[in-house]
Amino acid sequence: MNIEKFVQKFRDTLVNQCGVVGSSRILVALSGGADSMALLHLLKHSEMECLAVHCNFSLRGRESDEDEIFVQNICKEWDVELITERFDTTAYVTENGISIEMAARELRYELFNTICREKEIKLIATGHHGDDAIETFFLNLARGTGLKGLTGIAYQRDSIIRPLLFATSQEIIEYCNQQSIPFRTDSTNHETTYLRNKIRHQIVPLFKEINPSFFNTMQNNMEYLTEAWQIFMAEAVKVKEEMIAGTGDSLLIPIKQLNEHSQKKSMLFEILQPYGFSGSVIHNIADSMNGIPGKQFFSQTHRLVVDRYNLVLVPKSETDINQYYINSETEEIDQPIRLSIKTFKKRDDFSFSVNPKKVHLDADLIDFPLIVRTPNAGDRFQPLGMTHFKKISDFFIDQKLSLVEKENTWLLINNDDIAWVIGHRIDNRYKITSTTKTILEVSVMH
Length: 446
What we know:
With about 450 residues, the chain is an alpha+beta fold. It has 14 helices and 22 strands.
């Protein structure tokens, strides 16, 4: 191994791929393994000011403690400032219901970000190398994370830099050996109970057997896929801007326009994946969006409803089945929706509202307290202008309300009568007539 070429490649990568200029101050994730030890050594000898951070996840008993002691001794010898932190990772896993790998990641980066804020450091360097990127490729391929997941690991993302991605793990070990850099070996790296280790020890060696230049081939593949991803994302951004209505966590995705797009499934994946929908669920949504309306799909945080004309995405929440009361002295309520209530004598020049969000009812027929609730199965009322009863469910169909709109519709109840389908239609029995003396005005407030 040519050390000079390796070091020069590292420095070129640091500048050209990671965007590091001058003698930047860098937070270095130091586990004590060959990758992080080589990273710290290379940064230090590239005249970067380094602050090392070691996380003891308390997962390997004495071995974890020995790792901590090791990095303390090395940093003292190399004159590098070191911060160490010990975590009860097992307890964190139990409390949050996540995997050990995810727990360690969350704990690690929360610590890194806290230190960066306190120390005013803008860059975090990790020892990820090219073999890690290839393993990530296969992990994401197996999990179905879409095109983005096949781009591997980025040299730079936000404040995180990975200047060793150009190198193999073996090259890094050779660098350590030639530079007499000591390092620790994590005994769990050889256990195939972890999916990443299965890929590392069982799958990747087969590809190397087929193609001796497998590492370089995969580096090129991921570079091409990154460029393809960038082209695709430019189109995805355009589609989102032109097609999708709504803000924040609530979206309307027009089915007709989506159907007309030549890459509709890929576009749907990019739209929905950030909301926690898996690839298999998104595939089912795409197959269902031209079927019978009303089908629903769920992620951990969101619900998607296939409506007649749109895919309706909303945050997932428990259905509110509470009843809310309005007394005779009530002038305003905030729950479940904001309503203004007032009563006044009918004047000769009175004209009733034609706005469905502001209605006038015959107060002489009202028996307080009124109730605001959601529709129940079998609910019926007489829509204004009709003399016969109509089921609420049929009224919703006539109004072409989506499932989400139906669920967000409230009723104003007088005794057992539906006096007003709030925001839509009053009951004909409660309309203002020539005999009405007192008027109840109820308005939806914004």
